[in-house]
Amino acid sequence: MNPDLEVDIDALRRAAADIAATADRVGAAAGEQPLPPAIPRWATTEAALLAAEAARQQLALIGSDLHETARRVRAASADYELADARAVTRLRLIR
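The structure corresponding to this sequence follows.
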């Protein structure tokens, strides 16, 4: 038999776990920002703080998107597993 689609469910689950771990690291990086020195206050300090905040927000969004991707990969693997189980049941019924 030559299937139209073959899915390695365990590999999907491992990929989802890896994506979630990456999301955690990215989210942690978003929370790690050094405090600027109080003195001397340079003319570029405000601009640097704004740029750092923008970068932090982007990292937080990327981390959130990665978590959503991991969730979707997990859901897809569960759906494939359920489809396989239904196919097995159908095949058993026709024997």
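The longest helix spans residues 45-93.
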